[in-house]
Amino acid sequence: MFKVLMRRPYTQMQQESASSPAQCSAMIRRDFPVAARLSHHRVLSGVPHVLPRLTSASAFGSSTESLVSRFCVEKTDLKDYVLPNASWFPDMLSMYQEFLEKTKADGWLKLPSFKSNRDHIQGLKIPSGFAVSSGTSSDQGDWRIFIRCIQAEGQGYEYVIFFHPTKKKSVCLFQPGPYLEGSPGCAHGGSLAAMMDETFSKTAYLAGEGLFTLSLNVRFKNFIPVGSLAVLNVDVEKIEDQKIYMSCVTWSRDKQTVYAKSSGVFLQLPLEEDSSP
């Protein structure tokens, strides 16, 4: 849900990641070692932080059901941005309806999306070892998650994420608007990378308290036309050594075109209770 480090080995055009598995592993060991073997690390250059140590009694004690229950609040005055609006094209609407039907019998859940991640974790906070100053005096009401920064309907990120708790997988329906254009008529590669990271983020948190992005690798295959539907299929591959490993394939609606493939690794770390008034 919150990002400490994001490797971005991509451009708007197609590009292969240059990092080998060994290099990736070395990076993780250097920057984000497992908590039980670590005393200090840095979140920002020149600012030392102590990574909270986990005990067997506190590490990952929340079940997927309890995480989903807290995340998917049933009654709230907050605006849910994943409800259909007039900018949704037929492909987006029809597939949304298909997955709504699956929520009734097949175990899928539609995840709400509020203006800020702060709204999803009310009563909780980032572990104190990762707390950083925002560097701004902006009013709290102005905080927005990056992919909710464009307020006009249909101009930026139109998306909805469905999550399956048992299968630990997600499907994101993404309709990029004209404000996300890269090459004329096509969505910028960075907009898709951000959408992948967001889907990874929500999946990692609900599947096992994955909190921070350790790495994100993207291989672009084809351009996404602005206004078309891209379907992101995310699977949790494994959870080990306090890390959650995931994969994503982004398809066209008819599955005839692969837009991109990606993998992500998230640090597994529980949030803390927020006792502040």
From TrEMBL:
<dbReference type="GO" id="GO:0035336">
    <property type="term" value="P:long-chain fatty-acyl-CoA metabolic process"/>
</dbReference>
<dbReference type="InterPro" id="IPR029069">
    <property type="entry name" value="HotDog_dom_sf"/>
</dbReference>
<dbReference type="GO" id="GO:0052816">
    <property type="term" value="F:long-chain fatty acyl-CoA hydrolase activity"/>
</dbReference>
<dbReference type="GO" id="GO:0005759">
    <property type="term" value="C:mitochondrial matrix"/>
</dbReference>
<dbReference type="GO" id="GO:0035965">
    <property type="term" value="P:cardiolipin acyl-chain remodeling"/>
</dbReference>
<feature type="domain" description="Thioesterase">
    <location>
        <begin position="185"/>
        <end position="257"/>
    </location>
</feature>
<dbReference type="InterPro" id="IPR006683">
    <property type="entry name" value="Thioestr_dom"/>
</dbReference>
<protein>
    <submittedName>
        <fullName>Thioesterase superfamily member 4</fullName>
    </submittedName>
</protein>
<dbReference type="Pfam" id="PF03061">
    <property type="entry name" value="4HBT"/>
</dbReference>
